[in-house]
Amino acid sequence: MFTPFFYDLLRSMGADERLWSESGVTVLGHPDRAENHVTAGYVIGEHFVVTCDPAAEALLRRATADMAPTMQAWQQIAVAAGGELLGTGRIQLLPDALPDVHELPEGFSFRRLDPNNSDDVRLIAEFIERSNADDLDEAEIAIDNLDDIIRVVLDDVGDIVTYSAACPFEPTPQYGDIGIMTSTEHRGKALGSIAVAALCPILRAEGLEPLYRCDEDNVGSIKVSAGLGFEIATQLAAYRFPIT
């Protein structure tokens, strides 16, 4: 079902695109990983791929020589090799059909924003000012790095209460990487779910397949994405290893 995504993701890692259908483990040193020393292990179909700092490649090849191609096995191996857990996550895609878009509750409305329009940027800046830094980081919202496609939910006074946006997913740019955040006082009203559902057809109209990433401990995001029909394409766990 997600074969094209597997092909694209594996190619972006410098791996053979056919690996997804083969049971096994591949460790790949990548120069991009040398900058932050982060190592990430991905379940991609039947295969498990580890992308790492080249300095850790020999260590991880030895450690994973007899590893089963599963997330559980990777996490056990990573801890035994002295890895510091940085986070776990999932990348999700829609199998085919777009989710239904429900009406917003009374008093709320949609608006498309332009990241190059000063009035729209001011509105986003005000939303950021009112928001929690951790929530903004989770949704990857930064005033100096706004996404190309932004659609927000406004309250009856014109303030942003839900921010939904997307940009091409860096490893596989034909996918639209969705970010979503609802202000604390308006959570529990299904605004985030409705906003993501409404964003999906916009992405497809612009040639982007909806992609939804979230951390494994983000119960709210997992619930929203599952309710909209997103399914797990890959899971990952990232570590930093001591390198001498």
What's the gist of this structure?
Helix content is about 30%, strand content about 30%. With about 240 residues, it is of the alpha+beta class.
Describe, in plain words, how this protein is organized in 3D.
- By secondary structure, the protein is of the alpha+beta class.
- 32% of the residues lie in helices and 32% in strands.
- It contains eight helices and ten strands.
- The protein is elongated.
Features:
single chain; Aminopeptidase; 10-stranded mixed sheet; 8 helices; 2 domains; 244 residues; 10 strands; 32% strand; alpha+beta
User: So how many helices?
Assistant: 8
Q: Give the CA-CA distance, first to last residue.
A: 42 Å
Low-confidence stretches are none
* Sheet with the most strands, sense and barrel status: 10 strands, mixed
Strand order of the largest sheet: 1-3-2-10-4-9-8-7-6-5
Kindly report the name of the CATH homologous superfamily of the largest domain: Gcn5-related N-acetyltransferase (GNAT)
Which secondary structure elements does this structure contain, and how are they paired or packed?
Blueprint: H1 3-12, E1 24-29, H2 31-36, E2 38-44, E3 47-52, H3 57-63, H4 71-80, E4 84-93, E5 109-113, H5 118-130, H6 133-139, E6 149-154, E7 160-169, E8 172-182, H7 191-205, E9 209-215, H8 219-227, E10 231-240
Parallel strand pairs: 1-3, 8-9
Antiparallel strand pairs: 2-3, 2-10, 4-9, 4-10, 5-6, 6-7, 7-8
